Amino acid sequence: MRSILSTCFFCVAFLTMSAQNIHTMSEIIKTMEASEIRYSLETGNPTPTDYSELLLTNDFYKKEVDGSYVVVRYEPSDSANYYMDIAESFFEIQNMEQARYNYMKTLEADPSYYKVWVYIGDTYYHQQRYSEALSWYQKAIDSNYLDYLAHWACANAHMHLGHPDKALREITIAKVLNRNNPRLTTQLTTIYHLNKKNYTDWYFTPIYSLSEDYDEEEDVSIVRIVYKDYWMSYAFAKAVWKYEPGYAEAMDNNIVVGEKEAVAAYLTMASVQKEAKKAIATKVLKSALDNRCFESYVIYEALLPSMPQIAMFLDKDGIEAMASYILDVRSKIKK
What we know:
Blueprint: H1 2-16, H2 25-33, E1 38-43, E2 60-65, E3 68-73, H3 78-92, H4 96-109, H5 116-125, H6 130-143, H7 148-160, H8 164-177, H9 182-194, E4 208-215, E5 220-227, H10 232-243, H11 247-250, H12 255-270, H13 274-278, H14 280-290, H15 294-303, H16 316-328
Parallel strand pairs: 1-5
Antiparallel strand pairs: 2-3, 4-5
Helix pairs in contact: 2-10, 3-4, 4-5, 5-6, 5-7, 6-7, 7-8, 8-9, 8-16, 10-12, 12-15, 15-16
């Protein structure tokens, strides 16, 4: 909970600093050369980050507190949990009428327990009553836009009702809201395929590592940068953001701005390195720049895999913009 709530601060900063300039690669190198610390460079093959365990649940919603919005975890009452447990037991044995009755009792006990709207919709969905299911899924989205399961379920219902465009958008929004979920990705790929649209689940995977030592004889801190191939410039940017005194502070410690600098630095090398030019990450990045989707690329490709909770702190327009990037830019470039 603490890590998710702490994310709120840099996302709020991001929303108020979207026009802030970023440093160029040459400026980053000048910073490193003039630094009071020493940067040590080494080629190698560090292990890329594994994102497969970084998954989210639909246990959070936005709540207005003192004029601003915060993300909080559901804390249903004991009576709501009582009816929820009964409903789930009936759902397990496919008794949808009794499951629905107890889900409704759960809502009576706690009207702010928004995710129950999805489960009510599921009882209709399993009875192949797709229009009724869709209406409940839409209520869930209206109550809590962050609920990725509501968007996912909505997409499934739209497919059964013959609304492929709406299904594409809803499953894409669900993907933004839970970037690494493998079952969600499988369903997204299926819906894209049925609509003759491409989605390849590639990842922007920087291969580098950073560490810091201290040389007592020379009385200097040494930042060790190990990188593979064309990830050198990306690693440089990440190193100055993490270790250079005053650097991140001067940019208000804005993690999104920092990632923009790193991705832009990556492109300076990827644009001239033969192997990097062919990489899907480079091709999509160039297309994103051409289509003015750089911000969406940075968040979806470079930040959400390692910090999927960021999506919870974006507003509806930001999430919609990312979905449009995936549908209109990312999906058009094949690996």
